[in-house]
Amino acid sequence: MKINSFLFALLLVFSACNNDAKQNNNATSGSNGNRPAEVTVKKVEPNKLTPADVPAGITIKGKVQEVWKWEDTNGENYLITSTVVPYKDKCDYPDFDEPCFTAELYAYQFRKAGDKYELVWKAEDAVKGCGFDNTCEFIKDAATVTDLDADYLAETKVQYKLACRSDVSPAYLKLIMHEGSLKYSLQGSMWLKASDDDKFTVTEENVNLEKLPKKQDEFEQIMQTWGRYESEKEFVSAPPEFLSFAKNEWMKFVIEKIGE
Questions:
Q1: CB neighbourhood size of 257 (10 A)
Q2: Which residues pair with 121 in a beta bridge?
Q3: CA pair distance 170, 193, nearest whole angstrom
Q4: What is the distance between the alpha carbons of residues 247 and 57, in angstroms, rounded to a whole number?
Q5: Closest CA to 102 of 94, 112, 90
Q6: Gap between the terminal Cα atoms of the chain
Q7: Could you report the per-residue pLDDT of 15-43, keeping only the tens digit for each?
Q8: Hey, which end of the chain has fewer CB within 10 Å, N or C?
């Protein structure tokens, strides 16, 4: 009789534990016992368009180079780059006998607000009054639209080079990154590859010129700048992934080849 009572008590305990397990499973799975619906994280998905796709309500200066469209927390957005063909201008050099030219470039971000388009930011640069070889152009395939910090607010990035030169020297490179109206940039010298024998020795560890000991020789000081940006100070308040991405993009496009 005692044995039967013990078995009966054991059966009650097992049944109670089984019911608790079912209730816990229902609590985590939903009232119908199915798995909970996964939370959908919105992603920024940029699309590259053609110059003809620029909305009629957007006015820019110059000839359109690239157009990107995406949606984020600010709604519908456009990144547009454009350039102005070099035109005759007064020379920056006194008593220069040759004709001089000025070239310009522009980058814009617009967001749609109702049936209009608001300017989020505008970047412009130029090489003015140049009587030599004038270089003022966006780096091919370098424009990006990302969401590195996954906050559904896109970052845009463009890179371009500037130079007025009559010798074999590298162009000046600028990387401009925005998240909304916030701007971050890296600026410095490209690395000029004059021949196949030239060895590119700049790495992500030594690309920041500000952190390197200054060379004593003037020529070595100049050569030390090749391929490096001047400072990371504009990224101090940015999420760390922004600088990591910008540094990688700098390294990707910093080499300039003669004739390109």
A1: 12
A2: 109
A3: 9
A4: 35
A5: 90
A6: 98
A7: 444 445 444 444 444 444 555 556 667 99
A8: N
